[in-house]
Amino acid sequence: MNRRYLLKGMGAVALYSSFPAILGEFISSCSTKEKNLTTGFFSDDEFHLIEDITDGILPKTATPGALDVQCPYFIDLVVKNCMNPNDQQSIKKGLQQLNEASEKKFSSLSATEKLSTIKKIDETAFNNDANKAWFRIIKKLTLIGYFTSQEGMTKALNYVKVPGEYQACIPYKKGDKALAKTFLMYW
User: Fold this and answer.
1) What are the tens digits of pLDDT across the range 83-126?
2) How far apart are CA 99 and CA 45, in angstroms?
3) How many domains is the chain partitioned into structurally?
4) How many CA atoms lie within 13 A of 184 on its CB side?
5) Which pLDDT belongs to residue 72?
6) How far apart are CA 29 and CA 161, in angstroms?
7) Contact 22/37 with Cβ under 8 angstroms?
8) 185 falls in which pLDDT band (50, 70, 90)?
9) How far is the C-alpha of 57 from the C-alpha of 125, rounded, in Å?
10) Which of 81, 91, 103 has its CA nearest to residue 53?
11) Cβ pair 65, 156 in contact under 8 A
């Protein structure tokens, strides 16, 4: 056995073992036909804000969007089971500030106004604005949830089935989708 593959495998096992509650939830939801997903951390209003934000980050186009692959439920699971109380409260506070930032509630804005607001927050959040750290977390979790879902992996990316025969170089033509990766490198 190649030492590099052994170390990669051990790293994957360590990574996945750090999310036992999430993996257990996903495995049990895959084995049932009914998908009655429920929130466990966010209130209904907060969850609807998460839905609006994830839809603004990855809307449905020719490929499924974040709402189609249930990213808000993934975010709810991760925040509830894997984050410390300070980060959890930071996200809740950020959602509250978002909803109260203008004269109208965020949820009552038009789709264009919501997208414009999300873009403004996105621009400032990644300029080391400490007040927008909650948005960076939501965006990263949206991307992780989307690109590790079956639809994100196989429809939004160029999925190469593994195991299969080894190909040292996979041809790429300008305009092709990016290759899918089956490990998390978003942090």
Assistant:
1) 889 989 999 999 988 888 767 788 788 888 888 888 888 888 87
2) 9
3) 2
4) 19
5) 93
6) 23
7) no
8) very low
9) 13
10) 91
11) no
At residue 12, φ and ψ (nearest 5 deg) are -65, -40
179 DSSP β-pair partners: 158
CA distance 39 to 72: 9
Peptide bond into 163 cis (omega under 30): yes
| Whether residue 15 is found in the same domain as residue 51 | no
Is 76 in the same domain as 10? no
Q: Which of 128, 137, 132, 146 is nearest to 184 (CA)?
A: 146
Q: What DSSP line would sit under 42-109, residue for residue? A: S-HHHHHHHHHHHHHHS--SSS--TTTTTHHHHHHHHHHHHS-HHHHHHHHHHHHHHHHSSSS-GGGS
The predicted model scores a pTM of 0.71
Residue partners of 157: CB distance under 8 A and separation at least 6: 147, 177, 178, 179, 180
Q: Which residue's entry shows tokens 């604005």?
A: 129
Tell me, yes or no, whether 61 and 134 share the same domain.
yes
CA angle 152, 157, 161 (to 5 degrees): 95
Question: Which letter does DSSP use for residue 149 in this model?
Answer: S
Q: Which two tokens stand for residue 30?
A: 């895959």
pLDDT of residue 66: 92
Rounded Cα distance, 56 and 116, in Å: 9
Domain that holds residue 30: 1-36
